[in-house]
Amino acid sequence: MPYPFTLPTTSSTPLDAFISSPSHPSLPLEATTQRSILRDALKKHKRLPTIQQAAHLSVVQDAINGYLPYTLGIASAISSGRIGEESVSVTNTKQLQTEWRLTLSATLPGREPPRSPLAGIYNDVAFVLQTLAYIQVQQARAQLQILYSPNIPSPDRRTAAIGSAMKHLLEANSIHNYILNLHTQDPASAPLDTVNSTQVALAALALAEATLITVLKDDPYTTAVIQARNKDDKEWMISAPSIPKVRAHLFARLCLCASDHAQRAAASLAPGIGALDSSLLNYVDDLRRTARAKAARFLACDAEATGKTGEAIAYLRGARRELGLAPLEQDASKRKGWKGIQQTFAEKREDRKVEKGSDDWGLDAGKLEEARVLEWLEPKWVNEPLIATMPSGREYHTPKPFTPPTLDASLLARLRAPIDPHQNAFRGNEEDSGDENMAREPAVVPGAFPGAATGGTSGNAYY
């Protein structure tokens, strides 16, 4: 499952108080209205229960698509004096100041991430685009969740869900790459969420997830495990799950390619560039390990299909090591409990019979001796050379550049109209996000007196 990003919220910012347009007087006013609609949509999304947020993503996406042409047009007019093919004059009456809540920075447990003040239009554009990328990842999660529902989806429904999730992740990758080309503020003072290293990491992470779910469509083993864990599944009563042959070597190379992308994301999120959320760092490392373990598993299937059973066992051991699991000999060959004591005592008694030359030694038909041979031989299937000689990764996707929405000529022509003195921009219906903690219900502290969380007593408290 892709990483569950949290959508940021933003402050109420009247753009018409910071910028003006002699050629298109209505442009700042209309941009303020669209930004307020986006702010309200983000606030409502944040306050929804988690189970309802997936259905509300399309509303936030429509609000972003409504505001993005205006903010990109203003940024283009400030830097080049043009929006598309039309000449547009936009000037700064004072430095634009916006606030966005940071969602990737590390915070204390139980506390909300802080809001960061941002200067300039391009930083506002970067956060709007990053929010759009988060929405794409969340929509991919919603599609992949269909695979784990109690009602087993049909093969066509499964293929459609995986294809849709892949499309969303590739779109997120292109958006993060587009943000890299924006002229943002100095990286030394930029927030950690939008610096170039974070964008490189998030783009690589989205591409790694898109590459890894490419294998999911044709992986029969994952499907069999999901089906076995489903309590409502009754197909096992009719027939055992079929495991068709797969293009194991190709799938292994795709998984290794996903691991390379995850490794690049981990390198860009390396400690030292700032205090990032530890859950994101752990997720990237787990994704890299999972991709390499999947590659080793497919190589084990490929080796077993060609009769190289020992090599297949070694690859499976390597897969367990990549996941950080205990080796097989520690799980299966460790002698525990009463059975382990009996086995050890029987072996010692057989050894004494052999040493004394008793006529009853070997009555077990060499069973104990063979068990010792297997225990000795099991560690001999070394996996380090095989893991080191795994093939290089193979790219599956060719990401396309992101094309943001633009203002069309007819809309720009309408924005040339002068401003009505009695007309005001829509400023939103939601309260300012800076006062959220005060507006919420007081937290209930277990074991405390009523009203202890707010420093006072409740008027209707019962003692």
TrEMBL record:
Biological processes annotated in GO: cellular response to pH
Matching Gene3D superfamilies: alix/aip1 like domains (1.25.40.280)
One GO CC term, this protein: plasma membrane
Cross-referenced SMART domains: BRO1
Start and end residues of each BRO1 domain: 1-434
InterPro entries from the UniProt entry: BRO1_dom, BRO1_sf, pH-resp_palC
Similarity field: Belongs to the palC family.
Protein name as catalogued: pH-response regulator protein palC
Species of origin: Aureobasidium uvarum
